[in-house]
Amino acid sequence: MTRNFFFKNMKRIEDFTVIQHHWLNENTFLIELKSSGQLPVILPGNFAQIQINNTPGVFLRRPFSIYNADYKNNTLTFYIKIVGKGSRELGLLKPGDITSIIYPLGNTFSLPDKDKVLIVGGGFGIAPFLLLGKSFREHQKKTTFLIGGRSKQDIMLASTFKKYGDVLITTEDGSLGEKGLVTDHSVFNNNNFGYDMIYTCGPDPMMKAVANIARNKNIPCEASLENMMACGFGACLCCVVETTSGNKCVCTEGPVFNINDLAW
Amino acid sequence: MTRNFFFKNMKRIEDFTVIQHHWLNENTFLIELKSSGQLPVILPGNFAQIQINNTPGVFLRRPFSIYNADYKNNTLTFYIKIVGKGSRELGLLKPGDITSIIYPLGNTFSLPDKDKVLIVGGGFGIAPFLLLGKSFREHQKKTTFLIGGRSKQDIMLASTFKKYGDVLITTEDGSLGEKGLVTDHSVFNNNNFGYDMIYTCGPDPMMKAVANIARNKNIPCEASLENMMACGFGACLCCVVETTSGNKCVCTEGPVFNINDLAW
Amino acid sequence: MVDLKIKIQDLEFKNPVTTASGTFAYGEEFSDFLDLNRLGGFFIKGLTLENREGNPYPRMAETASGMLNSVGLQNKGIDHFISHIYPRIKDYDTHIIANINGSTIEDYITVTEKLNDLEKIPAIELNISCPNVKEGGMAFGIRKKSAVEVTEAVRKACKKILIVKLTPNITDIAEMARVVEGAGADSISLVNTFLGMAIDAETRKPLLSTVTGGLSGPCIKPIALRMVWDVFKAVKVPVIGMGGIMNAADAIEFILAGSTAIQIGTANFIDPQVSLKIIDGIEDYLIRHKVKAVTDLTGAMEI
Amino acid sequence: MVDLKIKIQDLEFKNPVTTASGTFAYGEEFSDFLDLNRLGGFFIKGLTLENREGNPYPRMAETASGMLNSVGLQNKGIDHFISHIYPRIKDYDTHIIANINGSTIEDYITVTEKLNDLEKIPAIELNISCPNVKEGGMAFGIRKKSAVEVTEAVRKACKKILIVKLTPNITDIAEMARVVEGAGADSISLVNTFLGMAIDAETRKPLLSTVTGGLSGPCIKPIALRMVWDVFKAVKVPVIGMGGIMNAADAIEFILAGSTAIQIGTANFIDPQVSLKIIDGIEDYLIRHKVKAVTDLTGAMEI
Ligand SMILES: Cc1cc2nc3c(=O)[nH]c(=O)nc-3n(C[C@H](O)[C@H](O)[C@H](O)COP(=O)(O)OP(=O)(O)OC[C@H]3O[C@@H](n4cnc5c(N)ncnc54)[C@H](O)[C@@H]3O)c2cc1C
Ligand SMILES: Cc1cc2nc3c(=O)[nH]c(=O)nc-3n(C[C@H](O)[C@H](O)[C@H](O)COP(=O)(O)OP(=O)(O)OC[C@H]3O[C@@H](n4cnc5c(N)ncnc54)[C@H](O)[C@@H]3O)c2cc1C
Ligand SMILES: Cc1cc2nc3c(=O)[nH]c(=O)nc-3n(C[C@H](O)[C@H](O)[C@H](O)COP(=O)(O)O)c2cc1C
Ligand SMILES: Cc1cc2nc3c(=O)[nH]c(=O)nc-3n(C[C@H](O)[C@H](O)[C@H](O)COP(=O)(O)O)c2cc1C
Ligand code: FES
Ligand code: FES
Questions:
Q1: Complex-level ipTM beyond the 0.90 threshold
Q2: Which of D7, D61, D70, D296 is deepest in the core (most CB within 10 A)?
Q3: In what helix (H) or strand (E) does residue B19 lie, and over which residues does it extend?
């Protein structure tokens, strides 16, 4: 099987089998699911629409970034924060349970021209960045991850990300790394900032603040958005974001956008 | 604790814990659930409204006769046939799962004046008759159970019922007991029929046929009905049956009716 | 301490939580499960002048997040209520509100007059929205002219607070509320059930003996909420909202959309104690959001 | 072999299963998931004369067994459709039906005329029922006079089969169907979405930027089914039913209630292959029930 970074895969709907959960704290977990066939190529930034079974009150699928793809075992891993009924149910699944997944969905990040990249993630916003970090290593980029959280407990997987680059941390209460928001991190104050491109994913206000910094420093920046979705594959037009050329679907024309295209 | 057969218990809503299933065939099972407190007196014929969790598409509770009540262990047992989503889900519960139950609901059977009683059950219609058989034994009645099914596989729990009386069997294909419907059983052809009262529960057509025989033989007969219910405790007026004195709620004025009161 | 009290005109309720007509029988059926005295009030099953047997069985079908019913106002008539049921329930320390129905305007008037003497019933709910009867019911409530006629007639006969209950099966519920307010309603309650239907694909038969019935439950909540908001903007009298309320968050949403009080219907069947849980939940919400009085939330949706 | 073919006037469909406008984009978005050629047809996203950006985000909220949307007819306009999209989709071996919209009758006419030349579009669906636009849309569909006017005008301009899509947000849908039939509709499709609303109790804000939106999904099925039955009894032209169809049993119910064809909407979002499963399921049903042709089931509910 050859894998081409630029080849757009067919979207598919497929039953996956739960392999295991790995709980990171009481409301955040990794869930690994196995395909019965062979995984298609997953691009960094791609997401999936996961069906939530057995949950009255959850009608639509739920979108989650693909955190990791293991082509040997044909498994996908998602990094999930429990925020409501659907994410809670995914935490309750048992090994062997079956769930339907529509994937791979969405576009991907751009490869930067130059070498040094800064990846800024807040909350579950770090989910798409493991695959991105892996891809950057393959392409010999020098990656720095800047991860923010409210406190120490929110900072997870730093050791995993360390394999693919430097890891900087901020916490609002100062319990780990620098105190403050990600945008307060000293890396941004540095006069010779030195990064050639910024990638960000997380809560909207955070991404907007990162985008502002990028604009001020005149550095290209891509943001991965997390709008509410009904379908995830361009059928409903519910997930739009305002861009400089009109409303665009986050699910098909995103989730990754160059900040200059967004009407932020 | 004293238990009075004639004392009407308060209805209650309570969380029960699943203890175990006992599968009788691939779509019929006994499920035993434990109260966290002390069981109230359960009268033969009483039923419960069981909440079905985790099942999109099941909105209302489901009514089931109380098959057995164990006052020592404070457990209730239900005899359930899988016919749709709700009953299927009850079969999928695991020991330790919690479900909410409203009980005890409905009226009870009458004690016969005389001694020899015939109990006729078809399908899951035998569910209310274990408690009735037990009660009759306490009251020194001589009980005969007549159980009907399509074939051998449908005849379950005969050995359990044998503890409380004689057991007669009919199957439509003749694979066990006499061949035919329950109403074809030779017990009814007998010139000196000899039973003083008949009790029946099962599909409507079967109960109507049994009622006809009882009428012809001029023997008192009670039937336990299974109308569709939304509430189970007299709030909605959905479960009515036409009686000689107007529409009556099966959930509060039944489920047990004297056939002479029914507009059959 | 937060203040849960609300008023429908001069009538004070200890809290905004009441139960909907036809889903709470005469209250007694719930006394095993909860302390009725804690309720803001309860609306009893629809009364008619004469004894009614209602529609034939089957009268109920489950649907996605809801149910259809075609009970059809089964009740033993107003005289039986007054002589047999009222004496048993009149001493509850909560407001008992009668829901009245008729095939003709004269029926409505007679029932209203008979209720005038019952001291412990401070208000009546004029039901011009029952979809399950052949005569009267919703027929009055889908046309402005007949809605106004029956409201005016009952207004004249009625010595109590008059709440008019609207059907959602109309094009412009705001306009209907306006004309009914003009005809003398002290309060508007909505929504009654939506006319719906269910078929068993296997037998090809309708699931209700009457073919069509009234849809209730969470499935109708989004439409009911929108209608409450429409009516709230259109009238000055207090609005009593309902339609699919299952928990305190739902109740708060109806209050934010403009309900002074709310009614809980179908939810009572699934959890007979739900009304008390909703009272507690509203209290918690007020404390958590530092809102002093529940009335501060009425229509307080922020657009 | 059972016969799945149906006809809307002279136009034959290979089976009664089509997909609803606004839930199937332009078909292409589903080509990864299914063979579009197997469908009876598909109704494309609502077209307008001019480019429309639709309503601001958020435009979607989940509800009990359903969803609200306020997309508001986002599309790049009829000319862009004709030059860019139509050429890409025109060779599918299934009927592509255009759903047309306008703020004025003139808009509707212009769009209709532009479509007349597109050989591979055999029918248009006149949408007078979109609840999510400020001008036109549902405003045309809630009053008989304007519904007749726009239908007559488009009828004159239209060289294709004319399907008129009704809004359920009205008192008497049978009467509306009758007058629209009188004005020249070849077929009536129903229902469009129900006007609803959702509020976030915590933030006190509406969940949609437009406050109200259109409710779809299984929650509306009982009402939609009843309306199809009402319309089926009222008109002679074929009825195309929809509203919450999730599986073959639902589809059969709509057919029994009088639908010649059915449309699948919201279900496409949850299972993009559902339409083919429904075709297979209908076929199974016919075999199992020994019914030769699906048309034998149209309106065959047994009362
Ligand atoms: C492209 C994309 C990638 C995402 N990746 C991740 C990820 O890797 N890990 C992760 O934990 N979360 C991710 N999310 C967010 C995730 O989809 C929501 O947390 C999830 O849908 C919440 O479902 P729920 O039933 O638990 O919560 P609910 O009870 O439904 O609602 C809680 C909150 O979740 C959000 N939400 C609900 N439904 C949707 C929906 N259909 N689309 C978007 N947001 C919704 C709303 O803001 C809502 O207020 C992603 C979202 C998008 C659009
Ligand atoms: C008083 C009473 C006692 C009963 N005792 C037993 C018992 O001991 N064992 C047993 O297996 N079954 C019993 N039943 C029948 C049982 O309630 C139904 O089989 C069950 O509700 C089906 O639920 P479901 O979700 O599996 O089926 P569904 O998918 O909902 O429907 C399948 C069929 O079940 C019946 N049904 C569905 N909902 C109800 C309802 N709310 N009330 C009544 N019938 C309904 C309908 O006929 C329907 O066609 C009893 C019913 C009543 C009223
Ligand atoms: C079984 C049943 C019976 C009802 N009977 C009446 C009635 O007698 N009078 C009336 O005004 N409304 C009646 N209703 C309507 C309810 O009062 C309420 O308006 C409706 O159910 C919507 O609220 P819900 O979704 O919370 O149930 C009845 C509803 C149900 C489900
Ligand atoms: C996201 C969304 C967009 C829609 N857009 C349109 C539209 O452009 N034109 C139209 O006539 N109906 C539109 N509809 C209505 C559907 O075609 C259909 O009438 C409705 O959703 C009911 O069917 P369902 O319950 O199967 O979804 C839309 C529905 C949804 C959910
Ligand atoms: S979620 Fe449906 S188009 Fe993006
Ligand atoms: S089921 Fe509600 S009254 Fe009997």
A1: yes
A2: D70
A3: strand B12-25
